[in-house]
Design brief:
By secondary structure, the chain is an alpha+beta fold. It is built from 6 helices and 4 strands, in the order αααβββαβαα.
């Protein structure tokens, strides 16, 4: 027995139908999500004798396109971002602030898009802002990069972000950071971390 809500236009014979798992894979949603949409009466579907929902793919794809799909045109990455892959192979080391020259593994933001770490916005060979991000390229893309000469990035584990950001802000005193974030860290560890950051930026 078909659902008591007939599909339109009417068919003289049963159309080709896909199972829940098959249909979900074809429209790029999870089976549990598609089932919920069908059971709530939103996603168009068939049932046979009260069984699991079945899907007529042309009808479902049209519904998904009209109701679930959203497009984002994106935006151009700032052209001011320069490629830095490490202090031993920087093509133009004169652009890197001296206070950052001793940091190992320094990266360009665009090459560190999926990395977690600390970023440095620089102008006239000075670090003017220090921040943290788990998505470097996405975070830097929100800044008006025409104000900066370059954006540099130091990868670090997620659980170190707050501590390292604070240490570098205290060591570098960048003009666009109002205050260092307040964090809780045992005094000996905090002191050791701050000493490390002070020594790094103090190599000029």
């Amino acid at each position: 027995m078909l659902s008591n809500r007939p599909m339109h236009p009417r068919h003289d014979r049963l159309p080709a139908l896909k199972t829940l798992d098959q249909a979900a894979a074809l429209v790029h949603v999870t089976p549990s999500r598609l089932r919920a949409l069908a059971e709530s009466g939103h996603a168009p579907h068939w049932t046979i004798d009260g069984g699991d929902p079945l899907f007529h793919m042309p009808t479902l794809k049209t519904w998904v396109s009209n109701n679930l799909v959203r497009s984002t045109r994106g935006r151009k990455l700032p052209s001011e971002i320069r490629l830095y892959v490490g202090t031993d192979s920087v093509p133009d080391p004169s652009r890197i602030p001296r206070s950052l020259s001793a940091i190992p593994g320094l990266l360009d933001i665009t090459s560190a898009a999926t990395y977690c770490g600390i970023y440095f916005l620089c102008r006239a060979r000075r670090v003017v802002y220090v921040g943290q991000s788990v998505n470097a390229a996405g975070r830097i893309g929100s800044y008006p990069m025409e104000r900066y000469d370059c954006a540099l990035f130091m990868p670090c584990p997620r659980d170190c972000l707050d501590h390292l950001e604070r240490a570098f802000i205290r060591a570098l005193k960048p003009v666009e950071n109002r205050t260092a974030p307040s964090i809780s860290l045992p005094a000996p560890q905090a002191a050791a971390l701050q000493t490390w950051a002070d020594n790094i930026v103090g190599v000029v």
